[in-house]
C-alpha cells in the first residue's frame, strides 16, 4: 500500500504484493473534500487539527487553539478535489432535528401540568384542614356534652356534616381536575410538537476503517434554513469532534447538539473524517473515484501543474514505495546518506548520484532502485514542467 503527501511532505507505507496476472490494486481515492478555516485577525486560517473541543490552526508558525464553543467565531467552508490513500466507512448515517431538554414539548407540558397540579394539591390540603377542624370541633362538643350527660348539639352535627360534604365535593373536584390536567398535558405536548420549535440536531452512524486511524476527528456540516428566512437563504452549521482511535471494528458515534435557531429547517448533513489534518475518503464522499498508484500519481502531477500556473518551483518528493527490506536496512543504518537525483519533467528519477556535483554514481544497486521508487512533483519553470536536479533523504521514509 502506498501513501501520498497531501501538503508537500513525503509519506510512505508498506508495498502491497500482487501477482503479475492480477490487475493493479486501487490504493487511492480522488473525491470532493471539505476544508474548514477559522478567521483570526480578519484572516482565515485553515484548520490543521481538532483537539478536544478546539480548532487547531497555525499562527505565526505555532499551533493556536480556538475553542469550538466560542460564540463569535467565523468559519469558512471550501470544497476541493482531494487525493487520499486512506478510507473509512460510515454506516447507517442518520440525522434529524431534535430538542434540548428544556425546550422539549413534553417538558413544556410537564411545566404546565405542574402548575395545575400544584393548585389542585393546595385545594385538597385546604379542604383536608377544614375537615380536620370540623372533626376536632365535633369531638370537643361531644366531650363537653358527655360530661354534662348529654349529646352534641344539632349545630355541631350540622357543622360536621357540612364539612364532610364539602370535603367530598372538593375531592371529587380534585379527581376530575387531575383527569382534565392529564388531558391538557397531552394537548399541550401535541400543540408544542406541532409548532416544531426544534433547537437541536441529532446525528448517528457507525464508523470503521480498514487501516487503523490513530487520532481521527470528524467535521459535520449541516445545511439549515432559519425560520422566517427568505426562500433560498440558507447557512451552514458546523460541528467538530475528536474521535479517538478507529479500526476495522465499527464504532457507534452519536451527536446531540443544541444551540440551533428555534424552528430551523434541516436540508442535509455531511460528515467528513480527518486524520493528521488530512481528509480521509469515505464511502459517502462526493464524486469519489478509486485509483491505482500510477493513476494517483498522474492526478498529483496534473493538479500540481494546474495549481501553480506561471510559477517557478523546484521538484518535491510526493510518493514513495517502502518495502519491508528497505525499512529493515534503513533501521540497521544502511543507505543513510543524501542522494542527489535527476528528475524528469514527468516526476520520475532518471539518475542517482552520491555527491552534489552529480558525478559519483551510487554503487549499491538496492538503494538506487529504492530511490528511483520515489516519485516527485516535477520542477516548474513559469508553470511548465521541466527536468531538474534535487536531493533526497531516504531516512524520512521511516517517519
Quick structural overview:
This protein is an alpha+beta fold and 399 residues long. It has helices at 105-147, 154-194, 293-307, 324-331, 365-372; strands at residues 3-4, 26-40, 43-46, 49-51, 54-59, 62-67, 75-84, 87-98, 200-208, 216-225, 235-242, 251-258, 265-275, 278-282, 286-292, 316-320, 338-343, 349-353, 374-377, 379-381, 384-386, 388-393.
Question: How would you portray this structure in words?
Answer:
It contains 5 helices and 22 strands. A hairpin with a 2-residue loop joins strand 5 and strand 6 (62-67). The protein is elongated and about 135 Å long. It has a 7-stranded mixed beta sheet, with no helix packed on it. Strands 2, 3, 7 and 15 form a 4-stranded antiparallel beta sheet that branches. It has helices spanning 105-147, 154-194, 293-307, 324-331, 365-372; strands spanning 3-4, 26-40, 43-46, 49-51, 54-59, 62-67, 75-84, 87-98, 200-208, 216-225, 235-242, 251-258, 265-275, 278-282, 286-292, 316-320, 338-343, 349-353, 374-377, 379-381, 384-386, 388-393. Helix 1 (105-147) packs antiparallel against helix 2 (154-194). With 399 residues, the protein is α+β, with helices and mostly antiparallel strands. It has 3 domains: 3-99 and 198-292, no CATH class; 101-194; 308-398, TolA/TonB C-terminal domain, CATH 3.30.2420.
List the main descriptive attributes of the protein structure presented here.
399 residues; 3 domains; TolA/TonB C-terminal domain; 7-stranded mixed β-sheet; disordered N terminus; alpha+beta; 4-stranded antiparallel β-sheet
